[in-house]
Automatic annotation (TrEMBL):
Taxonomic lineage: Bacteria, Thermotogati, Deinococcota, Deinococci, Deinococcales
Every N-acetyltransferase domain range: 1-111
GO-annotated molecular function: L-glutamate N-acetyltransferase activity
Keywords noted in UniProt: Acyltransferase, Plasmid, Transferase
GO biological process: L-arginine biosynthetic process
Xref: CDD domains: NAT_SF (cd04301)
Name of the protein described by the UniProt record: GCN5-related N-acetyltransferase
Keyword Acyltransferase: yes
UniProt xrefs under InterPro entries: Acyl_CoA_acyltransferase, GNAT_dom, NH2A_AcTrfase
Amino acid sequence: MGFIVAEEGGKVVGLAGLEHYGSVGMVRSVVVHSDYRGMGYGEALLHATLDRAAQQRIETLVLLTTTAAAWFERWDFAQIPWSELPEAVQRSPLVQEGCPASAIVMGRVLRE
């Protein structure tokens, strides 16, 4: 997994992760410190993640969220059924051990 870090004055204020599963990438942990929300850091982190995914020839991005579905919908992610997660993603440690069944699965096609 690779991380993109947002800094302000030498202080980490946010990060986003990207995991690879063949031609599918899983967006992980787009987070911004509460003192810096609403300042564009989340958007910048997501755009940097999308750019990195495109550079790495990822065709589809998926993510799991319990709180930010509406935010991701603004960036063309759409809810998809759990059953549409690629098998490799379903076997990932996040899905197997760390994600509640109530999480919303979302996806976005980058290249067809």
